[in-house]
């Protein structure tokens, strides 16, 4: 990494929650920051806070679902800092509800932000990282939902499992090339954030499951604690970042059910209302 003036980190979804924690931790480590979000006000407030602490920061209002805006983000990073060392593809949103009740528009929004947003980051930044010919790192935010499919959040499960697949593939490809670029995949359980504010209205079961998720997320680990784990993993060049260890029995049970070809059983949460009947 370019240590002369601190590595350059680009972070999407930086204005809130996990992205904000990552930005604060990166600033503490003396990194130069390019912060992206659709929330212009939140972005400005964070920039002012970090600049007040002496960090070199540029804000770029960016919708990760729009490739031309992600290209502009890359160009802003190049114009301001001359290169990029770390890319955090972190922006994401939630949608709850029965798979068949979620509207086509809601499905498309989830695919566009949670999946295409990460694909755009990879497509637009990895060629730059390769061209630079110096060490770099791509960090994608998936979720425990990247391994375990909860009922009533199909688009989230689908997009996060795709982000796991994309990240593992990218890791293999960069290793094949012998490129000095690492990949890390953040797969947390509940982290205190505002993500449930992005959950759009839908069916009753989806709304009551949303309320359950909201309360679990509000009691989750802090973004600051997660960010410390993430930066430790980057320093170790570690791919998997799984801060919530209590999910491991559920994952083992899932792998066992695949290997034994027994039907999957969901065990992670108490499901609301009529969703119990579907279990
Ligand atoms: N909070 C959790 O419990 C949890 C657990 C696992 C994974 N995650 C993942 O962490 C990531 C960050 O979410 P969070 O929990 O911090 O939520 P958050 O809502 O607090 O922060 C997400 C940020 O992304 C921004 N954003 C939304 N759509 C965007 C777009 N199209 N382009 C750019 N920015 C956009 C929002 O404005 C917001 O500032 C997401 O990918 C989420 O799926 C969260």
From TrEMBL:
This is SDR family NAD(P)-dependent oxidoreductase. Residues 7-194 form the Ketoreductase domain. Belongs to the short-chain dehydrogenases/reductases (SDR) family. InterPro entries: KR_dom, NAD(P)-bd_dom_sf, Sc_DH/Rdtase_CS, SDR_fam. Keywords: NADP, Oxidoreductase. PANTHER family: DEHYDROGENASE_REDUCTASE SDR FAMILY PROTEIN 7-LIKE, RETINOL DEHYDROGENASE-RELATED. The lineage of its organism: Bacteria, Pseudomonadati, Pseudomonadota, Gammaproteobacteria, Pseudomonadales.
């Amino acid at each position: 990494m370019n240590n002369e003036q601190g590595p350059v980190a680009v972070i999407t979804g930086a204005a809130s929650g996990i992205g904000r924690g990552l930005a604060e931790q990166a600033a503490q480590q003396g990194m130069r920051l390019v912060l992206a979000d659709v929330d212009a006000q939140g972005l400005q407030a964070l920039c002012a806070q970090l600049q007040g602490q002496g960090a070199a920061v540029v804000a770029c209002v960016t919708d990760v679902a729009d490739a031309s805006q992600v290209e502009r983000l890359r160009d802003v990073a190049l114009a301001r800092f001359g290169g990029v060392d770390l890319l955090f593809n972190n922006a994401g949103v939630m949608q709850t509800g029965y798979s068949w009740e979620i509207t086509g528009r809601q499905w498309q929004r989830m695919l566009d932000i949670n999946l295409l947003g990460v694909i755009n980051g990879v497509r637009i930044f990895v060629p730059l990282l390769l061209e630079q010919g110096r060490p770099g790192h791509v960090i994608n935010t998936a979720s425990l939902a990247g391994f375990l499919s909860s009922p009533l959040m199909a688009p989230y499960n689908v997009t996060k499992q795709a982000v796991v697949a994309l990240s593992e593939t990218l890791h293999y490809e960069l290793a094949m090339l012998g490129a000095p670029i690492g990949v890390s995949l953040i797969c947390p359980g509940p982290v205190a954030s505002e993500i449930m504010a992005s959950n759009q209205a839908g069916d009753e079961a989806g709304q009551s499951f949303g309320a359950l998720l909201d309360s679990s997320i509000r009691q989750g680990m802090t973004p600051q604690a997660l960010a410390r784990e993430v930066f430790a993993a980057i320093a170790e060049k570690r791919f998997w970042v799984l801060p919530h260890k209590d999910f491991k029995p559920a994952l083992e049970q899932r792998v066992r059910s695949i290997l034994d070809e027994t039907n999957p059983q969901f065990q992670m949460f108490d499901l609301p209302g009529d969703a119990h009947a579907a279990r």
